[in-house]
Amino acid sequence: MHLLTRLSGGFVLAFHEISPQRVAGFVDAIRPAQIVPLSELVTRSRQHKSTSGLFAITVDDGVGNNVRALAPLFIARGWPATFYLPTAYIDTAGGMAFQWWRSLKPLLPRRKIKLKSGVIDLSGPSAVDELTKTMELLWHSERLKSYFPMTMELADLVVREMGVSRDAISPPDPISWPEVSELARNDLIRFESHGVSHTAMSALSAEDIEFEMRRSRDLVAEHTGRPCRHFAYPFGSRQSIGMRAAAEAARFYDSAATMSLGHVDFASPWLLPRIPLYPENSTLFARVKILLKCSTITVPRSGPVMEGPEHVSAGCSNSGADRRD
Predict the structure, then answer these.
(1) What span, in angstroms and rounded, lies between the C-alpha atoms of 47 and 224?
(2) pLDDT tens digits for range 162-194
């Protein structure tokens, strides 16, 4: 792994729901690379200082059991980590559309279904997979009203016809604000913004983007007692970020993280690449992914670090987006 630290720029790991054992395995596998706070990595990149051999840990979505499991690991190991919180999920505990879909997908009846929004034909062998692709496209490009009502109609149908309780298919509970406040007292744990509603920024007006960024920033700061200076775009793909969001993020945050793959050198702080890793990935896969996507051997295509919002473009500065949530 000395080769990895010599040949790669600094990078940001992105986790979602994952066990502490898997996270520890990934981190141990990429040693001797050193974990630093996200803010340090961003600052070094903006100041054109080397980030080689450094990386930061981030965790998205604020799922309660996930945060409660991972935070003690980070504290015990002395690893600084950042949790990105979608604030409406915490305020309402109602769950996000993609979380509902994970529970619903295997239970959907394989037949034609009549909904208020229209008829869905799930009788074909690949119909559910095709519908999933359609839903993913909607998540990355449309407002909640385009897909959430239909999702909840399907939830009602599954409860009614498949003999399962609503609790059985409901998304996991989020971390609570009192727990956030308590965990934030430890200097190793940082909570930052993942927006309010976890809606694709590309689907929103400039006013709505400003609300999402300002409101979530202020709520996180209120409950942690610390400035909220970092943001993660919901879904994080180029399609979901759109044309306006990066410039808006530069008004409110020191960085805004994407799900495009790459190292942080030569990247816009408001289109910050990350390296997502998932429970099914092997440690060998993680090493290869980091080395291939964070290599400094080739000349970066993005040019120098962009320091002002007037220089922020719509495309992420490193290619290869990961489309998971």
Answers:
(1) 27
(2) 999 999 999 999 999 999 999 999 999 999 999
